[in-house]
Every structure is written in C-alpha cells, then in structure tokens.
Amino acid sequence: MISTMQDVPLQIRRILEHAVSVYADQKIYTAQPGGGLSTRTFRETGENAARLARALASLGVREGDRVATLMWNNQEHVEAYWAVPSMGAVLHPLNLRLPPAQIGYIACHAEDRVLIADHSLLPLVTPLLPTLTTVEHLIVNGAAASGTDLAALAAAAGRELGVHDYGELVGSQPPTYAWPDVDERSAAAMCYTSGTTGDPKGVVYSHRSIYLHSLCAALPGLLNLTAADRVLAIVPQFHVLAWGLPYTAFVTGAELVQPGPFLQPEPLARLIEASRVNKAAGVPTIWAGLLSWLEANPGAADVSSLKEAVVGGSACPPALLDAYDRLGVTLLHAYGMTETSPLATCARPPVGVTDPAEVRRYRLTQGRGVVPVESRLVGPAGEVLPWDGESTGELELRGPWITGSYYGSEDPDKFHDGWLRTGDVGHISPDGYLTLTDRVKDVIKSGGEWISSVELENQLMAHPAVPEAAVIGVPDEKWGERPLACVVLREGTEVTFSELREFLADKVARWQLPENWARIPEVPKTSVGKFDKKRLREQYALGELVPEKITAS
Ligand code: AMP
Description:
This protein is α/β, with parallel strands linked by helices. It has 18 helices and 28 strands. The radius of gyration is 24 Å and the shape is globular. The termini are far apart.
C-alpha cells in the first residue's frame, strides 16, 4: 500500500458545512397557501439544521436513533435532511400517501423514536398515535400558527408522548452544533420501498452512499446541476429522498423550489411561473397531468423558464416526451429504485449523435449508467447476457449506492453474489444504453413468447384519444396469458376498441395485439404516482374489470 492520501470520511455534515459557506446566499423556496413563496438561504438552513439537532439532542436523540418525518416537500423538511444525519441519527421520511395502517407498520418496524409532522397532516397522524409505540416525541411543524392543541394531541396517544411545536422547540436553540465524526458507513437515512412489489422493505442509506450519489448525480451526464440552476423538486421527499435532490442541490449550489402540498397541475404551473425554475423532477403522471392542464388552458401560466425536467419512476411514454419537446421542455429520462438511491441510469444521448430520430431513440431508453454502478443482464438460467441490444434478461446492479440487504428482513432472492436483482427486464445496447421492456411480474407470457406491456402502453398512449393506458396479462386457455388493454379515453372522444386495435396493428407484431379491452375511468396509481397494475390484476380477479373481446379490427 503506497497511497499517501488522507482518509477523510464522507459524511453528510461535510456537504452542509461546504454549502453554507460557499453557497451561503443561495436559496430554498417553499410554496405557500395563496401562491406566495417563503425563502431561506442555505446559511439560514444550516443554522436551522443546527438548532433542530440541538432540539433533538435535548429530547434524548442519540447516534443511530431513527427520526421520522411525515411532511410535504418544504423548508423544515430540508432542515431535517441535514440535521438528523449530521448529528449521527437516522432520517426516516414516511410516505404520507400510504394507507395509515402501513405507515404505522413502517414506523414501528423502523423503531422511530421521534416523529416530525406537518400540522396539515395531523388528521392522518392523530389516529395513528396510539399505535406508534416506539415514538416518544411528536414535533408539529406549524403547530402554533395553526392553533394546534398540543395537550389534546398528547392525550390522543393514550400513553406518554412529548408533543412540541417545531418553531418553539427549535427557534430558541443556538444556531451551531458540534457535528460528530460519524463512521461514513453508518446509517444516515432510510426509506421504505413503495410496495409496488409486495410488502414495504426498509432500505438504509449510509453517509458514504448519499455523499457519493450526490456528487455523481450532479455530473453533466446525469442531472447536470450547478449554482446557476433552480430546481423544482416535485418528487416527494419520502420517495427515495426526493431522488437525492436536496443533497445534490447543496453539493452544487443549485437552488431548490419546494411545492409543499400544492401538487395539482394548476398550482404547479403557477409555481413554475412564480419561481422561474429552469429544472424540475417528477414521475410521468405528474408531467402528464401538467401537460393536460397546459393544453386545456393555453397562455394561462408562463412556464417558459422550465428547460429540462427529469422524468423517472416509470417509463417515459414517447408521446409525453414529444409533447414537452413542443413546449420547449426537454424531458430527461432516468431510471432507478428505492434500492438504488435512486439514480442508476440516465438517458442523455451520446455526444456526436445529432440526427433527431436517433436522438429521440436514445432519449426514450432508460439510459446509461454512471461509473460506480455496474449493470448486467441475467437470463432465465442465470447466464450473463451480452450487451447486443437484443438479448433480454433481468437487470442486476452493483455499486456503492446500491442496497446490499433490506433492513431487518431477509430476502435472499433479491440479493446474490453482491448483486441486486432489480426485477426489471430489458436489454442493453453495445454502447451501454438500457431499454427496459417490463417488470418481471408484468411481462405477459403468451405461447412461450414475451409481450412487453410497456411497449403496448406506450403505443396506446401515443393515440390522441388515450391519455392513460395500462396493459396486464390475463389467463388464457390456449396461450397461457394474453394482454388485456385497460384504456382511459379522453372526454368527448368516440374511438372504439377496434379502432385502437387497428391503430396498434402496424406498431407491434400481430400476435401481440390485445384482444381483451376494457375502458376504465383512470389507471389506479400507487402511493408515488405510478400505474398500479397489481390493483388492476386484483380488479380483474374479482370480476370488477370485465373485458370486451375484440379479435378483428
Ligand atoms: P421505486 O422503488 O418506487 O422507485 O420503484 C422502482 C421501480 O420503478 C423500478 O424497479 C422500475 O420498475 C420502475 N422504474 C423507475 N424508473 C423507471 C424508468 N425510467 N423506466 C421504467 N421503469 C422505471
């Protein structure tokens, strides 16, 4: 060993200390009721984080303790992102869109000791309090301003529970904290999977994994963030730490805009107009909703500042990419999972490719990986497949911000030989671009061949009368499984299933054309806004979804 380099641990507090000195006057904006924006500088955010850490320490929070949040994307939530890991405790953002019983299960499983909650979420929190048996203190953000009765909350718990107003508890503390020197491999934060695949599982991120992820996410090949950017984080802070955006923003000095609870298309459009963001991040359903509103209300909001928006969490439909291109907004397709921190790949086309059709083709892939994350495709017999753009198998990932095991739960099927089995199926081109064709469990196996449900959905959503489509496999006596196309039809359109089938006829192989069709009012969504095909399968099994047979167009 001849290295002469210093062995400095990669701790989150070092990012904070750097940002509050180098980018002290950069700002975080949070949407307020009535359309205004509150503003805090990075310096103020750092001071408030130190105050919060002192407050938590005064409540007995020690290194390794879990501190949960049940909050919208807002200033105080960002303060918790810095305070909790920097003091050596573990930040645990809870998913406020989950059924209450599941939130309770997750908080108990993580053994959260403190819960910080927005006052607007108290209707959700209050009935849960008796079941949150590990939580000793509840800190309510905005309690005083909203006239919250803290004593009544404590009584509602039916056991000993300290209840505090965030402003009162935190505001009186000094703005400095002697951050400890924690091990870079110790836990900094945790998120539970959104349950697209069964029960939620805990993923614990370390200081080192978040630090490295934040550095790389900022790279030009990925999010390409600098201090000249202002980013709207629509992706919730409970969904894979808002895809790491608060941390990457502080690494780069990029300003952050937080929508709070105002996530409907119109307030989002108005927020873009008011904050003049040039970048943003969210799942496809968010971008689809905003698009519909912008199209229905031409000129009602000036969103021309927005130049690039990260879309991930599920595949970006080509029609969505094209529509945003027409608006002057480049959708940047990225792929990842809770288990991958999340950034695994990002679809910036290769340098030198200029032909518009080629550029579009690359942008619609899931993209290329970043250096510390290794990818491989594995076939049904466990064989590693070549990157030839054709061989299709399950994607496996390995790297310093890829989960190696779930928290408090054995899942040997998911992890093997140091690799994470993603459950996603696809192929990789010789130049490293990943194309996902499906989830393992969503692939439709028809007569021994695979049909990509994603491909059928994308083609259907390219029809102007179809804002949403989800395709699931249903049992078939002859073929084993056949596709059932569940489509949402735009108000006032009269297209028939036969016409939609005909529309697909020159886009997919004939044997892949669905013969089962159902019109649905909307595609059910998961807690993070993805198409919930598990729910559609349940509806089909219960006889709630009765398809029409269309065999000839
Ligand atoms: P979650 O842990 O909730 O973020 O879900 C992760 C899963 O979302 C992945 O395993 C994929 O199935 C899916 N996903 C995320 N990003 C994409 C994408 N760009 N294209 C297709 N599927 C995606």
